[in-house]
Amino acid sequence: MGPLGAFISLAALASAASVPHSNVKRQVSQLRDKYDFVIVGGGTSGLTVADRITAALPSKSVLVIEYGDVQFAPGVFDPPTNWITPAENSPPTWSFVSLPNPDMGNLTAFVQAGQVVGGSSAVNGMFFDRGSRFDYDSWAEVGGKEFAKSKIQWDWRGIFPYFKKSVTFTKPSPAIAQRYGYTWDLSAYGGSTPIYSTFASFQWADHPVLWQAWKEIGISPAKECAGGDKEGICWVPASQHPITGKRSHAGLGHYADVLPRANYDLLVKHQVVRVVYRKGPKSGPPLVEARSLVDGHLFNVTVKGEVIISAGALHTPTVLQRSGIGPASFLNSAGIPVVLDLPGVGSNLQDHSGPPVTWNYSKPYDFFPVPSTMVSNATFKAEAIAAFSQTPAAGPYTLAGGNSAIYVSLPHVTSSYRTIVDKIRRMAHDGSATSYLPPDVRANPAIAAGYKDQLLALANLLANPSSPSLETPWATSEAPGTAWSFLLHPLSRGTVRLDLADPLAQPILDYRAGSNPVDMDIHRAQVRYLRRLLDTPTMRQRGATEIGPGAAVAADDAALAAYVKQQSFLSFMHPCCTAAMMPRAKGGVVGPDLRVHGAEGLRVVDMSVMPLVPATHLSATAYAVGEKDWKKR
């Protein structure tokens, strides 16, 4: 199907999405007696798996159970909003606030996830990048010799074909490509899936200011950053339709766009409470116990083949823990009978975090248009709204949240990188790193062994001049200017635990950001590196004047650490790794086939299975993981 045909299909299905579809179920009486597959969670990975199974195995029935509902999902920057301001018709989200982080000045992490069919792909920033090849090679590294023997490999070579399959990339028109200098390499793509990505037909007028300044501090533009090599200045496509400019997400591409299918059922507005093994974890597949959010009715779903938990990095651990699968010590304290002692369930929580470098301009800022123009100039905004309604869509509203970022390795950030890397290797080998783990798991030998392997893999990543450790995305440099310092490879580890006061409520997140002190070493190095931006000819010409942290603060380790603790965002909404794909003897929860260790008929397929957070936003990886999983059936 060509782009125009896809547009017609998308438009019809998007309007139909607000009307209950025949495949949408809302009460238990509408369900079949048994299902071959039950998928817990209708998010990015879960719907990918559901689509692929129902297409490849038409004789097999699939039920997806989703807490949210089918709902329209606007883009991060759609009419009539002003620059990336929340739309009134946005789907609901889960909102989490972590416990205070004592090593980061008691800051809390604020995290959101999609509470809708499509999951976080329906509410995220639409920044559709992939990690470098070295990120995924590190997954294989922490799997060790045991996983190396598997026929299923999760290194770059093993996952790259599924990145390609998972998305349909549309190159920009020659005129747009020439206007903005877009570059790409089609060999990084090649899919025909109705999950779309493309480049915007618009940039803010001041966008080239930072592009030029980054080049002046020595960062080279990369032709393509989705093919495994990511160091440099990158153009990043957005997850949007090339004709409509609207958000492309799993609720459309892996649900609405592929219906009708007689073997594909979706039960909305229901919460999966737990999976139930009636005769122990070897007796699977388990039953699925769910409850209605309308009347609280509890019921069981009988499964003939397999249960696939795809509830996300923050909810998958709670489903497992309520099922008696998790750390025995915690389950005992919660009064939950232990079905399977897996200390890694809910451990190993990771996310990207970091502070900004900020500045103002002392000279006139005479660019047009910039984001503030949306507020100050009614004519321009009206024209922008009209342009988005064109075929194809055009103008500012096609920009989503921006499509540019720098990715820089630690050796290019600081000449002291060897000192940092050596410190990581020493703490791994002498065992002192264990003291930085959460208190309830640090004495567990499996968790300690797995953390050691992770640290050694991270040391290799951070020593690699081609493996980015810093990200700074941008779309404009309008005052006050901001360059965010994303810590892409954190060493600190947190936990996700059931709320014992209400096990069906939101879990307790203990991010423990900054608990490993090497994270602060990297934060400081990255902030100092980004400050170099303000001393470039381009920024001096504009009269850039630093707001934070400032020269005096940056020159002092203690003062800069205090700045990082005061100004950091502890979550850039990329939580992961809480049911890690590692050997059971190393604290892992799933194997290379994503089956839960020791649990028959039970898999996990979402961002909780990553052992290490990659240097990327997570949406594209979530699709690829779903694509790779279904192929093993």
UniProtKB/TrEMBL annotation:
State the signal peptide span. 1-16
Annotated GO biological processes are: secondary metabolite biosynthetic process
Q: Which residues are involved in binding FAD?
A: 44-45, 116, 272
* PROSITE patterns per UniProt: GMC_OXRED_2
Keywords in UniProt for this one? FAD, Flavoprotein, Signal
Cofactors per UniProt? FAD
Question: Active site located where?
Answer: 574 (proton donor), 617 (proton acceptor)
Question: Which InterPro entries does this chain map to?
Answer: FAD/NAD-bd_sf, GMC_OxRdtase, GMC_OxRdtase_N, GMC_OxRtase_C
Domain Glucose-methanol-choline oxidoreductase N-terminal residues, every copy: 312-326
| GO terms assigned for molecular function | flavin adenine dinucleotide binding; oxidoreductase activity, acting on CH-OH group of donors
Pfam families reported for this sequence: GMC_oxred_C (PF05199), GMC_oxred_N (PF00732)
Q: Which family does it belong to?
A: Belongs to the GMC oxidoreductase family.
Q: What is this protein called?
A: Glucose-methanol-choline oxidoreductase N-terminal domain-containing protein
This chain's source organism reads Staphylotrichum longicolle
